[in-house]
Write a structure and sequence with these properties.
Strand content: 15-25%
CATH architecture of the largest domain: 3-Layer(aba) Sandwich
Helix content: 25-40%
Radius of gyration: 22 Å
Number of strands: 15
Shape: globular
Number of helices: 13
CATH topology of the largest domain: Rossmann fold
Structural class: alpha/beta
CATH class of the largest domain: Alpha Beta
Length: 372
């Protein structure tokens, strides 16, 4: 390993605001010698991209988005020029073969005897007439990397099934917040005002399934009818407000909230529910010792939400969600124990610090391999 500080490069399709604390911590770890290359999202993706790192360097290229859904491809203009300028010793890039310039970037790094680490969700099975061909292409793509970083245990297992060596796969939990420093809120064994309080935090769009949450609350028995707090804004808000008036008037909409106001809602809530996809707020809710109900997603939820701290929906309908909420709210003592387990998980296992440790280990491993 050379005496000069390492240059670490990170390629991202886009630069979401929730990733910035991690990139800045990584830059601190490597004496500021971390540079992120990224582009802008497609219209309608609703990603918050109005902030940039304060410690990590950053270069914005130009994303050309081609097609959509299963046929989506992205061409990142400026990626190779950035590599030539930054000269990274290690490049960490999204392990996604749909990003066309990534293939050129890997070849550039290999030609210059540098290391490349892939970072991704995993690789679930693809069905259909082109499924076998696509899986072969994925395998060919990921085998080019010197190491892989997976978001979850499930993702790591999927990479192994594609034939990637397990000893070169590292798991970095998909964390958006640091380890909590404050103690968890103390909640009593009685509901405030004799009404349980359920909290949702997230973008109000169809895939979040907030409509299902409203309908599920209406199905709960009278003694468990909650107050439902909906935090967030988005294109579905008007329709959801109309649905709530009809189905469950005990729903309160707050719009986007941050800071102390949002913290106050987390502190007084009894249960956090995210029935759809996404879920960066799940980790934050767990830091307030809240038990969790989530929809089944990409495997990252499984590392956060377990039997000891919550429930994962299997069927994804209002009836199932109502049954899970009734189970949760019907036993306050057990509910509080699950909340305590949530806090322990984000304090000890799933946080930005643990994510940083995994990245550092992956970088050290590939560099040690180059010294042999």
């Amino acid at each position: 390993m050379k005496d000069q500080p390492l240059h670490i490069g990170i390629q991202q399709r886009v630069l979401p605001a929730y990733r910035i604390p991690f990139f800045d911590q990584l830059a601190q770890q490597y004496l500021g010698k971390v540079s992120v290359f990224y582009g802008l999202p497609r219209k309608g993706e609703m990603l918050e991209t109005n902030t940039v790192p304060q410690i990590a360097l950053h270069t914005r290229g130009r994303n050309i988005h081609l097609f959509s859904e299963l046929f989506y491809l992205c061409l990142q203009i400026g990626l190779i020029s950035w590599l030539q300028s930054w000269q990274p010793d290690v490049l960490i890039m999204e392990a996604n073969p749909r990003y066309l310039n990534s293939h050129r970037a890997i070849r550039w790094m290999k030609t210059h005897h540098r290391k490349v680490i892939g970072w991704g969700l995993g690789s679930s099975n693809v069905n259909g007439s082109l499924g076998e061909f696509r899986m072969k292409q994925r395998r060919k793509f990921i085998l080019q990397f010197d190491a892989l970083i997976a978001y979850s245990k499930q993702g790591a297992e999927e990479y192994q099934k594609l034939g990637y060596p397990a000893k070169r796969i590292f798991i970095a939990p998909n964390a958006a917040a640091a380890r909590p420093v404050d103690p968890p809120p103390k909640r009593s064994l009685h509901y405030e005002l004799n009404r349980p309080q359920i909290l949702f935090v997230g973008r109000l769009q169809e895939r979040k399934r907030v409509d299902m949450l409203i309908e599920a609350c209406a199905k709960l028995p009278g003694e468990l009818l909650p107050i439902l707090h909906i935090v967030g804004d988005g294109p579905a808000r008007t329709a959801l407000e109309e649905l709530a008036k009809e189905k469950f008037p005990e729903t309160k909409f707050y719009g986007a909230m941050h800071g102390k106001e949002l913290a106050a809602l987390f502190q007084k809530a009894d249960l956090f529910v995210l029935p759809g996809t996404g879920g960066l707020a799940v980790q934050e809710a767990m830091s307030y010792a809240l038990p969790i109900i989530v929809g089944e997603a990409d495997g990252t939820q499984n590392d956060l939400v377990r039997a000891e701290n919550g429930w994962i929906l299997d069927q994804g309908n209002a009836q199932e969600l109502a049954e899970k909420m009734a189970e949760a709210l019907g036993n306050i003592s057990a509910l509080r124990k699950k909340g305590s387990a949530s806090f322990t998980i984000v304090h000890d296992e799933v946080n930005v610090e643990a994510m940083l440790q995994a990245f550092t280990k992956a970088i050290d491993t590939v560099l040690k391999g180059s010294e042999k």
